Amino acid sequence: MKVVFNENYCKGCSLCIAFCPQEIISLAKRINNKGYRPAEVKDQNKCTSCTACAVMCPDNVITVYRPIKKRSSVS
After folding, report:
1. pLDDT > 80? residue 6
2. At 11, phi and psi to the nearest 5?
3. Number of alpha carbons in the 13 Å side-chain half-sphere of residue 12
4. Residue 74: which pLDDT band, with cuts at 50, 70 and 90?
5. Which residue of 1, 53, 55, 75 shows the fewest CB atoms closer than 10 Å?
6. Domains identified in the chain and CATH numbers
7. Phi and psi angles of residue 37, each rounded to the nearest 5 degrees, phi first
8. Quick check: 63 and 29 in contact, CB under 8 A?
9. pLDDT tens for residues 20-69?
């Protein structure tokens, strides 16, 4: 998983949807504990870990995990 939303705190403002360059975020059909439709990633494999969604989130509910780059061994 590359992008994780803390759905209990998401207010469904859609800023992450507007700023995602891959257009892979949408509002869920389910309702969270506060009565909002939280954002969710439609296809984690298309995420480039750019963090645009997390930067734009006013409630800090998005965590983006970047893949660990393998270091090339020098012989």
Report:
1. yes
2. -100, 5
3. 13
4. low
5. 75
6. 3-64 (3.30.70.20)
7. -85, 110
8. no
9. 999 999 999 999 999 999 999 999 999 999 999 999 999 999 999 987 77
Q: What are phi and psi of 7, to 5 degrees?
A: -60, -25
Query: Encoding tokens for residue 29?
Result: 């059909």
Tokens of 62: 């998005």
Length of the chain: 75
CA 52 to each of CA 4, 14, 17, 56: distance values in angstroms, whole numbers, following the listed order: 13, 13, 10, 6
Name the pTM for this structure.
Answer: 0.84
What is the identity of the amino acid at 67? P
* Whole-number pLDDT of residue 71: 74
Rounded distance between C-alpha atoms, residue 23 and residue 14, angstroms = 12
| Closest-CA residue to 43 (of 71, 64, 23, 27) | 23
* Residue in the structure block whose two tokens are 């990633």: 41
